[in-house]
Specification:
Number of strands: 11
Distance between the termini: 31 Å
Largest sheet: 6 strands, parallel
CATH architecture: 3-Layer(aba) Sandwich
Helix content: 25-40%
Number of helices: 8
Bound molecules: NADP nicotinamide-adenine-dinucleotide phosphate
Shape: globular
CATH topology: Rossmann fold
CATH class: Alpha Beta
Number of domains: 1
Structural class: alpha/beta
CATH superfamily: NAD(P)-binding Rossmann-like Domain
Length: about 240
């Protein structure tokens, strides 16, 4: 089938593209670098012709509530409007485990993205995943001072982005399920420890920070961990790090 992957060059999106192609699907990549801007809508409609399912793995690097809400709601509305016109039958969103319990600006954007998708008139699925193993690397660039990186203290049960990409393709090639069971990795870790392990290799130093307020306290005390049963990735952080 023909699948569109919005954000198909990103950390998780490129895995979804690879997995879908390995399984014999035709993939359309929707990114600005591929000529499709989901904020302006430019280059989107024609690329959705003949597409059966859309996977949204786009991202904005802003922690500001207004910017995150504008981006995620805007991208979702663009995809749904063009998708309805093109006869897309399934809209799949990648979201994050625990966003209801942590009131950050970025997570407000993800919550709005989920609501817009659910009300958009296209059959939908939302997969919430925990932080990727790759997040430990991404976290090193959130706030830098020379060779020091400020990394928030948070408990996480990270999962390999490759396994998240495969789960997104599994969903996209089946019927819409609404909210899917949360996907997490095999082990719970302190994110600062994981970031230090990545930083050692890059010659950087990690400075742990306690994010202020209730959101910071919730992240430190496990609000981003999965609750109950759900699919679990098998690749451990150690295995992922060794394979980098
Ligand atoms: N990182 C994690 O640990 C984690 C965990 C769970 C869920 N998630 C979710 O996973 C999603 C992807 O995160 P990621 O870290 O893989 O993202 P990423 O590496 O930052 O990649 C973002 C992608 O979005 C595309 N993009 C950005 N703005 C766009 C626009 N206006 N139009 C079209 N494409 C645009 C980028 O391509 P161009 O720049 O070429 O446009 C790129 O392909 C996010 O929604 C995030 O909330 C992340």
């Amino acid at each position: 089938m023909r699948i569109a992957v919005a954000g198909g060059t990103g950390v998780v999106g490129h895995h979804a593209v690879e997995v879908a192609r390995e399984r014999g699907h035709e993939v359309v990549v929707l990114t600005r670098s591929a000529g499709a801007d989901l904020t302006t809508g430019e280059g989107v409609a024609d690329r959705l012709a003949g597409v059966t399912a859309v996977i949204d793995a786009t991202n904005v690097r802003s922690q500001r509530r207004a910017a995150a809400e504008a981006f995620f709601a805007g991208v979702t509305r663009t995809l749904l409007t063009a998708g309805r016109d093109a006869g897309v039958g399934h809209h799949v969103v990648l979201s994050i485990v625990g966003i209801d319990d942590v009131d950050s600006g970025y997570y407000a954007g993800k919550r709005l993205q989920e609501r817009v998708a659910a009300e958009g008139g296209v059959p939908w699925s939302v997969l919430r995943a925990t932080q990727f193993h790759e997040f430990a690397q991404q976290a090193l660039s959130f706030a830098r001072l020379g060779r020091f990186s400020l990394v928030p203290r948070m408990l996480s049960q990270p999962v390999a982005a490759r396994e998240v990409g495969a789960a997104l393709v599994d969903l996209a090639t089946g019927d819409a399920v609404g909210r899917a069971p949360d996907l997490a990795g095999p082990e719970v870790h302190q994110m600062v420890d994981l970031a230090r392990r990545v930083a050692e290799r890059d010659g950087r130093r990690v400075v742990p920070v306690r994010l202020p307020g209730r959101a910071g306290a919730a992240m430190r005390s496990g609000a981003l961990l999965p609750r109950g049963d759900g699919p679990r990735g098998r690749i451990t952080f150690d295995e992922w790090l060794a394979s980098r």
